[in-house]
Amino acid sequence: PHRASPQSARRTKSKPRAFSIRSSAEAPTSPSPASSYSGALQATEIKERCLKWRWKGQYTINYFVAQSPSRSPPLLLVHGFGASIPHWRRNIETLAQNRAVYAIDLLGFGESDKPEGFSYTMETWAEVILSSLAKLFAP
């Protein structure tokens, strides 16, 4: 049987931390349903407002824009593995109060193309992100 080391035993006895971590996809703690949560976009609204552009002239990249009257630098939201633009639905409107917000679906995710046999690598996604920055934030 596995025995805990003295260090791990001490860690388990430590006092709980006073903060909590919540993902952007979690519902707010509120008596009202998430659909009526003020400041949250609905997934259908995001899908209707999304735009497309062609990466390398052949792959469609899906993106979303929330404009802001502020002159602050724009913000690009990039989802994690297995996610897509709607995962930002509870963050976009709040962030857009102070700056233009852009969100993209990386190649192979969400509403962006999912080419068969394509080599999905971190380097490829980095290229998509850099190209998105150049395309979306060009003066």
UniProtKB/TrEMBL annotation:
Biased amino acid composition, Low complexity: 23-38
GO cellular component: chloroplast
Sequence segments annotated as region (Disordered): 1-40
Pfam short name (any one): Abhydrolase_1
UniProt-listed Gene3D superfamilies: alpha/beta hydrolase (3.40.50.1820)
An example molecular function term from Gene Ontology annotations: chlorophyllase activity
Domain named AB hydrolase-1: residues: 73-130
A GO BP annotation: chlorophyll metabolic process
PANTHER family registered for this protein in UniProt: ALPHA/BETA-HYDROLASES SUPERFAMILY PROTEIN, ALPHA_BETA-HYDROLASES SUPERFAMILY PROTEIN
Protein name per Swiss-Prot or TrEMBL: AB hydrolase-1 domain-containing protein
The organism of origin for this protein: Linum tenue
